[in-house]
Amino acid sequence: MSDPKPPLSKTDPKFLQLVLCYLEDQITAEDFAVLQNLLRTEPARRNVFVRFCLARALVVEVSKGIGEAGFPDLCKLQPETPSDLMPPNDLSDAMILPAVREAPLEEQIAETSPVLPESPQPNRPRSPLAILRFQVRIAAAIALLLMGAIVVRFALHRANAPAVTVSAAADAKWEGSTDPVMVGTRIAAGQMMVLTTGCVELKFAGGALVILEAPVRFNLQSGSSIFVNSGKLTATVHGGGFTVHSPTSTVLDLGTEFGVDVGQDGAAHIEVFQGRVRAEATSGSPTSAVGQVLSVGQAADVSAGAIVLDPRGVNPQRFVRRLTSSTTQLSMTDLLCGGDGTTHRRGMTIDVTSGNASTKTPPTPTPRPTDGTTYHPVPSLLIVDGCFIPDGRHGPQQIDSDGHSFAFPPTTGKTYGPLSAGAPVPWYDRVLRSTISTVLGSIDYSAPGHSALVCHPNKGITIDLDALRRLYPGRSFSRFRAVVGNSFINGTPGTSVRDPRADAYLIVDGVKRMEQLGFTNRDGPIEVDIALNPSDRFFTLATTDGGDDNINFKFVVWGDPTFFLSSRQSFAQ
Amino acid sequence: MTEESVVRMLVSERVKILGFIQSIVRRFDIAEDVFQDICVLALEKRETIPDEAHLFNWLRSSARLRAMNVLRKRQERQKALDDDILESLEEDWREQDADITALSAEAVRHCIEQLAPAARELVRMRYRENKEYRELSKLFKRPVPSLYVTFSRIHAVLADCVSRRLASEGGGYV
Fold it and tell me: CATH 1.10.10: does it fit domain B90-174?
C-alpha cells in the first residue's frame, strides 16, 4: 500500500483543467506543450495526472452502469429549467459536494443517513486482519461488484438468490400462467422458465439487459449467465462478462450487444450487433471445444463441435432488440434492405419475377415478360411476404401468402429491372448509360436524409406487418406516408416519349387503400398518406404501366416511404 | 493460463486498463475498441501467458502499443504524449495499480450519490447520456470553459471522496 496522497481537490486547479481538456481531446497545441512540459519535469504532476485519469475512468464506467435509478432525484428535474440545476454563479466545491466542507464526507452523511456508516479513519495503521479483510473484499468485489459483470462459472452464486428482475414486458406470459408478466418481478437463479407469448426484458444482477422473445425456454443460472434450451434472446452488456449457454454453444460477451437464436435441435445462431463475443462450440468434451471471436456485423451458426460463419452477416430483422424504443418512423427502404427500419441501409434489389433479393449492382436490364401472375416469396427478407408482377388480364391475382387477391387492370405482364431499395438502376440507353433518376420535384430521394424505392412497372411487393410488429413489441402502426411520381424528364436526349403514364396502388389485406391512376411525369411528386389499423396484416405496394401497352420511361419512384408507429407504450418499470 | 482465469482478470482489471488507454487515446469509444482488441488477443494468447502478473504486464504493454497504433492510423500521433513521458508515467500507473481496488467502483457510486443535484446531473449527462460540452453549455446556459472548471472540480472532489471512503474501509487511494 502506498502512502496517502494529497487530495486532488487541493492541487493546482489549472493543472486539473489542463488534464481534463487533454482527456476531452479539446486541448490547444499551446496548452498541450505546457502539459507535456509539466509532466516531463515534475514527478508530482505525473502522479496527479494518473490519479485524475483513473478517477475519471472510474466515474465514466460507473456512470454508464448506474442506471437511472442511481440518479433518483435527477430524473425529476426538468432540463427546460436549467436555472434549477445550476446556480447563477459557477459551481463551487460546496455546490458540487454540498455535504463536504470541513468535515469528511462520511461524517456529513451520518447526519442525514438513516444508517450510520462506519467511522472514517483515513490514516489509521492497518492491521494484518484489516488487510486480510480488505483482500477478501477485493476478491468478493471482483466477483460481484466491479463493473457488474463476470463469468458465471466463477461467480459466487448462491442458490435461490434473486438473479434477475423483469424490467419490461410486452404481451408476455409465462407457461402455466394466464396472468401477464409483471414488471418488477424478481426471479431467483436456478429456475427453468418458459415464455409462451410476447417479450420480456430481464435485468441481470451482473448488469446485463436481456430481451427474450417467445417461445423461449431457458434456465437462469446466475446474475451473469443464462442457459437457453430453445428460442431467441438479445443481450446488451457494458463491460462484458455475460455468458449465454445453449446445448451446443457458449457465447461469452466481451462488452457488446449480441443475439442468440437456439433451434429445437440445440444449434445456435449468433449475431454480433456491437463489440465482440467469443463463441465456443461444445461437444461434450472440454478439450475438443472450438472457439472463435466474432466481431461487430458478423454472424455464425454453431452446432456440436463446429462454428460456421454466416456470410450474410447480421440480420436486424431476426431479433427483438428494443422493448422500450421511442422510435416512431420506420423506413420501408431500410426494411427492404434487411434493416429494422432505423438502420439507414441502402442498396438492395428484389427481382419480382423470382423473389431473389441481392445487394449486387444489377446489370442493365431489358424488359422481361413473366410467367403470368405467380406470387413469389422472398425468403431472405423476414418482413417481406412476397412479390409479383401485377397483371389483370387473367382476373384477380394473389397478392399475399394468406391468399388475398386483387383485380389490377390489364398490363403488358412485363417489368423492367428489379425493385430497387436505394440501389442505382441502370437505364437501358445506349447514349447516356445513366441510371434511373430518383429526383421528384426538387428533391433527390437518394440523397442523405431521404430514401427511395425505384419501382418501374409492373411490380408489386407485400410486407407482413405482423413480422414487422414482432420487432417492435406492443407497438402498432398508425400510418404509411410517401410521395410517388415519375422521374422521367420529357425531351431527354435519345427519347421521343412524352408524359408516360403509370399507376400506383397501396392495398391492405386485399383491399385497396389508395390508387393513383394514370399519373405522368408532369404531375410531379404525389403525396400518399393512408391510415393503418392494428388488425392490418399484409401491406402491398404496386405500380402498373398505365394501360397504354408499354412500360418505357415509367420511372416510378416512391420517395421517403415510411411506416409510422403509434406513441410508445410504457412497458418499463 | 486458462480461458477462465484470463476472462476473470480482464473483467477485474477493465477499469484500470481503460483508464490507461483513455490517457493515451482520450476518446471513450476508441479506448473501448482498443480494450476489446486486447481482450481478444489475450484470449488467443492465453496459453503462452504463464500467470496473472505476466498477463497484467502484457495487457499494459499491449494496450499502450495498440493505442499508439490507433493514433498513428488516425494520423493523430502528434496529439499523443511523447514516449519519454509515457515511460515516466509507467511508475505512477504501477503504483495506482497497487492502490486501486475493486471496491473503488462501489465507492465511486457512493460518492456520486453524494454529489449536489446539479453536479450529479452534469455527470449523468456527460458520461451516461454522452452529451458533449457544447450541448451541456446550451442546456445549462453556461460557457464551455466554465463547465471544464466545474468538471475538473467534480473529478477531483469525487477522487478525494473515494479515497476517504476506501481508506475508511482499509483500501487504497485513487
Answer: yes
Q: For chain B, give every domain's residue range.
A: 1-81, 90-174
Burial class (CB in 10 A: 0-12, 13-18, 19+), A447: exposed
A543 pairs with which residues across the strands?
A: A459, A504
Residue of B nearest to A25 (CA): B26
Specify the pLDDT at position A369.
65
A317: amino acid identity, one letter: Q
Model pLDDT, residue A362: 63
Is residue A200 within 8 Å of residue A572, measured between CB atoms?
Answer: no
B121 and chain A: CB distance < 8 Å anywhere?
yes
Interface test with B, best of A36, A62, A101, A145 (most B CBs within 10 A): A62
Using DSSP bridges, classify how beta strands A225-236 and A243-245 pair: parallel, antiparallel or unpaired: parallel
Q: Which residue has the cell 455464425?
A: A300
Which among A22, A24, A50 is the nearest to B92, CB-wise?
Answer: A50
Query: How long, in residues, is chain A?
Result: 573
User: Which residue of A lies nearest to B38 if distances are taken between CA atoms?
Assistant: A254
Secondary structure element (H or E) that encloses residue A109, with its range: helix A105-112
Q: What is the pLDDT of residue A284?
A: 52
**Residue of chain B with shortest Cα separation from A243:** B7
> Least CA distance to B92: which residue of chain A?
A47
CATH topology of domain B1-81: Rna Polymerase Sigma Factor; Chain: A (1.10.1740)
Q: Which residues contact A274 (CB under 8 A, 6 or more apart)?
A: A256, A257, A258, A296
The partner residue sitting opposite B85, judged by closest CB among A39, A130, A291, is A39
> pTM for this one?
0.57
Query: What is the C-alpha to C-alpha distance for residues A291 and A66, in angstroms, rounded to an integer?
Result: 32
CA A118 to chain centre: 44
Rounded distance between C-alpha atoms, residue A415 and residue A124, angstroms = 85
On the question of a cis peptide bond just before residue A215, with omega within 30 degrees of 0, the verdict is yes
Helices (H), A308-384: 332-336
Which of A247, A248, A246, A244 minimizes the C-alpha distance to A272?
A244
**CB of A419 within 8 A of CB of A387?**
yes
Do the Cβ atoms of A325 and A560 come closer than 8 Å? no
Tens of pLDDT, residues B69-120: 988 888 777 778 998 999 899 888 887 765 555 557 778 888 888 888 888 8
Is A132 an 8 Å CB contact of chain B?
no
As a 3-state breakdown, chain B gives helix, strand, coil percent values, each rounded to 5, of 80, 0, 20
Q: Please report the residues numbered 40 through 69 in chain A whose beta carbons come closer than 8 angstroms to any beta carbon of chain B.
A: 40, 43, 46-47, 49-64, 66
Q: Which of B8, B89, B99 sits opposite A150 (nearest CB)?
A: B8
